[in-house]
Design a protein that fits this description.
The complex is a heterodimer of chains A (416) and B (79). Helix content of chain A is 38%, strand content 17%. The N terminus of chain A is likely disordered. Chain A folds into two domains: 136 residues, Aspartate Aminotransferase, domain 1, CATH 3.90.1150.10; 230 residues, 3-Layer(aba) Sandwich (Aspartate Aminotransferase, domain 2). In chain A, the strands form four sheets. Chain A has a seven-stranded mixed β-sheet, sandwiched between helices. Chain A has 14 helices and 16 strands. In chain A, helix 6 runs parallel beside helix 7. Chain A is globular. Chain B is mainly alpha-helical and 79 residues long. Chain B is built from four helices and no strands. Chain B is globular. The N and C termini of chain B lie close together (9 Å). Classes of the chains: A alpha/beta (416), B mainly alpha (79). The interface between A and B is medium-sized, with 18 and 15 residues.
Chain lengths: 416, 79
């Protein structure tokens, strides 16, 4: 512990300088120090020393089951995917060193965009260097001054940052509340452009949106609709296109945002659309233009993975089984979960507070299980969550092992 | 609706949100005095929006720090 922590409202003035710009972080620094002083392992500083498979790694020298990776379809060690990446490294080198609009578009970038068009059966696909940049870029570029963005209050940080970067009026509504959304749409001044932003799966509690109703209301009120399907791609819907496909309203969605860093198993982000003028975005979208494109190996692994996901129905079925088994087992053991029924591959276990959440997280790690510890401000309603994301490569035996670990850790910490 | 009438209606809406039981004046601040978190702000703003059938966008909310500024803004937004 350090001595003499400054009070947040009385920043230390350095000799011959202004106030310390880091004073604004003092409250967080103190909360962190308080937590670590209890002797708990730092939950935000874990190192994966070796990764054995999509579901297993070595952490602190111990073999650990991974239950917090978003690696839903387990494509990270797929032999075809890995081989495609190695081949691209040999053929094209380690990186493009350039923007997509200059020297950074290789054959592989066009190939992965073509794979996305086929996966979603849409006319256009635009690949960004991360999923964060896809939301940042598309939202800030299409909704400008005088336009209105109507969005769910539980939207991901990348969506909020996209709103902040643009100049549109930002109007949030209560999570998944169709009526609240409709009221706000109807109050927007005549003639203003409207963009409704929704997510298929909300990643904190793992709940899905009533997209069919919400998209219909948005369209009836003259809005364009953007849906972030980051946590549903490859898994939800008959062809793995997401919640909008599953609910039969994908044709009415103007823009689907997605990522390569979950089911696809690498890194990158994208937007797919049927908008006839979509291609102009490549010239005007700053987070697309002013950054280097993805390395050739990454786009090669992504394209191979996306094409394999088109035929992943057996894996999808097993992932649903895993999600249902875990949800049922945790409910039976007395844990409080984010949803009454399993709605996605995310199962959120609600903790009574940050201290016991961190203690439970550490107890699970010592059992040999990794989950995500999520805490405010990333979580809704200031909740502390242990967020579990299942993988199609988790065996049924692993899920049973996981339930045993939760039972022992939960008893030891006094959660159940 | 004139400013006094707006103030009276907002006064009724804010009551259940005033958990600290402060004597609210025109200079009372939402973040500093009332210590509202973002979810409370959203619920309160939604209540005001529904009462007056207006939109107070987040961009506009950023300009509203005190209770008096809120009354001014709502009076103006109603046209």
């Amino acid at each position: 512990m350090t001595e003499g922590i400054d009070e947040a409202d009385r920043p230390r003035v350095l000799q011959g300088a202004g106030p310390d710009l880091f004073s604004k972080f003092d409250a967080l620094i103190q909360q962190r120090e308080g937590l670590l002083a209890t002797g708990v392992t730092d939950p935000f500083n874990l190192v994966m020393e070796r990764v054995l498979s999509p579901t297993q790694a070595i952490c602190n020298g111990r073999e650990t089951i991974l239950l917090g990776t978003y690696n839903y379809m387990g494509m990270t060690f797929d032999p075809d995917v890995v081989a495609a990446g190695k081949q691209a490294l040999d053929d094209y080198g380690s990186g493009t060193t350039g923007s997509r609009v200059l020297n950074g578009t290789y054959a592989g970038h066009k190939a992965v965009e073509q794979a996305l068009c086929e996966f979603y059966a849409m006319d256009h696909a635009m690949v960004f260097s991360t999923g964060y940049q896809a939301n940042l870029g598309i939202i800030s570029t299409i909704a400008g001054k005088g336009d209105y963005i109507v969005l769910d209050i539980d939207s991901h940080a990348s969506i909020w940052d996209g709103c902040k970067m643009g100049d549109a009026e930002v109007v949030p509504f209560k999570h998944n509340d169709i009526e609240a959304m409709e009221k706000r749409l109807k109050r927007i001044p005549e003639g203003a452009g409207k963009l409704v932003i929704l997510e298929g799966v909300y990643s904190m509690l793992g709940d899905i949106a009533p997209l069919k109703e919400m998209v219909a209301v948005a369209k009836a009120n003259g809005a364009m609709v953007l849906v972030d399907e980051a946590h549903s791609m490859g898994f939800i819907g008959p062809n793995g296109r997401g919640v909008a496909e599953d609910q039969g309203c994908l044709d009415d969605v103007d823009f689907v945002i997605g990522t390569f860093s979950k089911s696809v198993g690498t890194v990158g982000g994208f937007c797919v659309s049927n908008h006839p003028k979509f291609e102009i975005l490549r010239l005007v979208c700053r987070p697309y233009v002013f950054t280097a494109s993805l390395p050739p190996s990454v786009v090669a692994t992504a394209a191979t993975s996306i094409r394999k996901l088109m035929h992943g129905s057996n894996k999808r079925a097993h992932l649903w089984e895993n999600s249902k088994t875990l949800h049922r087992g945790l409910t039976e053991r007395g844990f409080q979960l984010g949803t009454a029924e399993p709605q996605s591959a995310i199962i959120a276990v609600i903790m009574p507070d940050l201290e016991r959440g961190a203690a439970m997280w550490e107890a699970l790690l010592k059992e040999g299980l990794y989950v995500n510890l999520a805490r405010p401000p990333a979580t809704p309603a200031n909740m502390t969550l242990l967020r579990c994301s299942l993988c199609a490569e988790h065996t049924s035996e692993q899920v049973e092992t996981i339930l045993g670990m939760f039972e022992r850790a939960g008893t030891a910490v006094g959660i159940i | 609706m004139d400013r006094a009438a707006v103030a009276e209606r907002i006064g009724r809406i804010i009551e259940p949100f005033n958990k600290k039981g402060l004597a609210i004046t025109e200079d009372t601040t939402f973040a500093g005095d009332l210590e509202w978190d973002s979810l409370t702000v959203m619920d309160f703003v939604a209540g005001i929006e529904d009462e007056f059938d207006i939109i107070i966008s987040m961009n506009q909310q950023a300009e509203i720090e005190t209770y008096g500024q809120l009354i001014d803004a709502v009076t103006r937004l109603q046209g």
